């Protein structure tokens, strides 16, 4: 068992550190492993404007476990990045994914049927795109979204959370203040939303940093 464990560790280290010698001295192996550090990936991301003639809706949720408060927020913009409508709504919900479904339902009830919907929840996006409602915990959520999708002409896309900051600010506003609001002008945006909104409109990129768990280097 010890030999098997030692061999496995050395193979893992050798995969990412080709110069690692075939050392059988256990303290040396441990010392090498302890110096492994995950590499960091950094990429530029930005909110992308929709095609000419189409609208884009970004939605997000904010679920506070301690208080059990949930807020959904969203913003609709045109191909110039101009504000069409933004909303912050406090809802009754017991998990994050359910809030995403409620955001889609809210947009539909406002009469918007032809738009691009962006979420930073890859799980929901994949399940809606693949029409996959086999997950028992999320089945009722996905079924609701698919029902609306079949009755409208909206497209679902994934975006990084760095590109979803305006919707996130509205969701947090609803969950923390228990206030509902709908705005149609930039000047009526909450102060926490104006900065991210302008950065999106100017197409300013954000730096996304993420640890690459699959690759390591040895210092």
UniProtKB/TrEMBL annotation:
Transmembrane segments: none annotated. Residues 58-174 form the RNase H type-1 domain. Pfam families: RVT_3 (PF13456). Gene3D superfamilies: Ribonuclease H-like superfamily/Ribonuclease H. It comes from the Eukaryota. This is RNase H type-1 domain-containing protein. It comes from Solanum tuberosum (Potato). The lineage of its organism: Eukaryota, Viridiplantae, Streptophyta, Embryophyta, Tracheophyta.
């Amino acid at each position: 068992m010890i030999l098997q464990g030692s061999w496995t560790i050395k193979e893992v280290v050798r995969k990412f550190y080709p110069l690692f010698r075939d050392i059988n001295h256990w303290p040396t192996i441990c010392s090498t492993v302890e110096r492994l550090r995950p590499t960091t990936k950094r990429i530029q991301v930005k909110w992308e404007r929709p095609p000419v003639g189409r609208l884009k809706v970004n939605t997000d949720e904010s679920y506070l476990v301690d208080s059990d408060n949930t807020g959904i927020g969203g913003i609709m913009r045109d191909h110039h990045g101009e504000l069409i409508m933004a909303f912050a709504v406090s809802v009754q919900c017991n998990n994050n994914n359910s809030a995403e479904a409620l955001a889609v339902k809210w947009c539909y009830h406002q009469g918007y049927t032809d738009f691009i919907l962006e979420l930073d929840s890859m799980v929901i996006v994949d399940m809606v795109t693949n029409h996959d409602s086999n997950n028992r915990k999320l089945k009722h959520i996905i079924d609701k979204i698919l029902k609306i999708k079949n009755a409208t002409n909206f497209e679902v896309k994934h975006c990084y959370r760095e590109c979803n900051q305006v919707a996130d600010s509205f969701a947090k506003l609803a969950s923390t203040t228990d206030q509902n609001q709908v705005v149609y002008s930039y000047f009526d945006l909450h102060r926490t939303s104006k900065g991210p909104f302008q950065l999106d409109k100017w197409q300013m990129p954000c730096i996304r940093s993420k640890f690459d768990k699959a690759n390591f280097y040895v210092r």
